[in-house]
Each structure stands twice: as structure tokens, then as C-alpha cells.
Amino acid sequence: MPVFYLVFLLIISQRLLELRVAKRNREWMESRGGVEIGADHYPLMVLLHTVFFVSLWAEAALRGYPLSNRWPLIVFVLITVQIIRYWAIISLGPYWNTRIIFVPGGEVVKQGPYRFLRHPNYTVVILEIALIPLLFQAYVTCILFSLSNALMLRHRIRIEETGLAQHTDYADTMGSRFRFIPKSPEK
């Protein structure tokens, strides 16, 4: 049980810190004329992620906080995924946000993990929503929220890519990259 609480508090702390960074970046973007699109789905996305953690806690508690026998592999992959998350955040700099905001004159980021795929941060979220519950054998949470997240991302990515195509050279820059699976950059 202490391992669960440690991991749970670490992830929640990480999310709260990211929300602070997103708020700061949002203010920076808005001060430069940034415009948010797709705001109507944002509360649902926040709700999905909040209920994910509640479900994870409840299912793990009901099962007695079991740690997977494959925990070393899962933890290794989770750490790798976190490295990719922060690589993506650092690569986007002040343009990273949990909301979809476009700044006039902003350019598509082509560095960091964006050299290899269009949506590294969403890839990270997909993996986390599967791996964190698997770490504690919370299989119902894993399946239910992986499916719910897939529906949310389908909607969100459609909005984001439409906005990117309207406000940037996204289609020319990122058109040959896969959304979630790395691909070698073209020379």
C-alpha cells in the first residue's frame, strides 16, 4: 500500500505542477494575442483525468493495492515515458499547454520528439493511462479509461490539427510524421 500512495502522490504532484506551467504559458500566449479553440471539451478532459485517478484509487483499494509482478518493466517504461513528456514540454517551451491555443505568427515546433511524431505528449498520455493502472493491477480502470481517453483524443486532435492547419504550415511540416508512433525524420 505505501508504494501505491507514493506513486499516486508523485503523479498528482506532477499534474499540479504541469497545470501551473500551463497557466503561466497560457498567460504568456494570451499576452501575445493567443486565441484558444476547442475550449468546450476542456472541462470534460479535466473530468476524465480526475475520475481516472479516483477510479485508480478505488480499484486499487478494493483489490488491496496489489503491485504487478512486472512492476520493474512497467516502472522502467513509465520513467521513459516521463522523459519523453518533459522532452516534449521543453521542446514546445512557452507554447506548451493543456489547452489548444494559437499565437499569431507562431511556428510549428520541429525539434525534440516532434522530429519523430506529431503528438508525443498524447502518446505519453495514452501510455500512462494504460500503464499506471497495470502497475497496480487495476484492469477495469485501464480498459475503461484507455477507451474513454481514445474518444477524447480523437475529438481533441481533430480540433487541434484543424487549428494548426489554419494557423501554421502544419500540413507541410508534419504531414509525413505519424501521430503516435515514432518515424525517422526525413532529411
Automatic annotation (TrEMBL):
Residues in the signal sequence: none
Membrane topology, as annotated: Multi-pass membrane protein
Entry's transmembrane regions? 42-62, 74-96, 122-147
Q: Which GO terms describe its cellular component?
A: membrane
Which Gene3D superfamilies does this one have?
Answer: 1.20.120.1630
Predominant location: membrane
One example GO MF annotation:
protein C-terminal S-isoprenylcysteine carboxyl O-methyltransferase activity
The keyword Transmembrane helix belongs to this UniProt entry's keyword annotation: yes
Q: What is this protein called?
A: Isoprenylcysteine carboxyl methyltransferase
Native species: Aneurinibacillus danicus
Q: What is the lineage of its organism?
A: Bacteria, Bacillati, Bacillota, Bacilli, Bacillales
Task: Name the gene.
Answer: ypbQ
